[in-house]
Amino acid sequence: MPFAAEKGGVRLAVRLTPRASRNGLDGIVQGADGRPMLQLRLSAPPVEGAANKALIGYLAEALGLRKTSISIRSGETARFKILFIEGDGPALIAKLKDWVALTGG
């Protein structure tokens, strides 16, 4: 899975496609290194952090979380990003699994 519990929350691997025609989750894909990641599309452009802000907002809304509980650990200027979601790890993983299953990922 592209997410794992860590102390204080969950680490989430994401492959982001900015400037898409729609916002959405396209499921789980394999990276070039074989690691799984969530494939997300956002209509926001990758300019001045707009796509990163949109990513955090999209995830917060989809998972019913506060934006401040989601942060980008690495990949701020790349398509592949590692995010950290603060909170109860097992509960967050359950939310992520439900969300991926609901969207057909």
UniProtKB/TrEMBL annotation:
Q: Gene3D superfamilies annotated for this entry? A: YggU-like (3.30.1200.10)
Cross-referenced InterPro entries? DUF167, YggU-like_sf
Q: Which GO terms describe its cellular component?
A: cytoplasm
Superkingdom to which the source organism belongs: Bacteria
Listed SMART domains: DUF167
Checking Pfam families in the record gives: DUF167
Known HAMAP family for this protein?
UPF0235
Q: Which NCBIfam families match?
A: DUF167 family protein (TIGR00251)
Q: Which family does it belong to?
A: Belongs to the UPF0235 family.
Stated name of the protein:
UPF0235 protein ACELLULO517_02895
- Taxonomy-wise, where does this protein's organism fall, top ranks first? Bacteria, Pseudomonadati, Pseudomonadota, Alphaproteobacteria, Acetobacterales
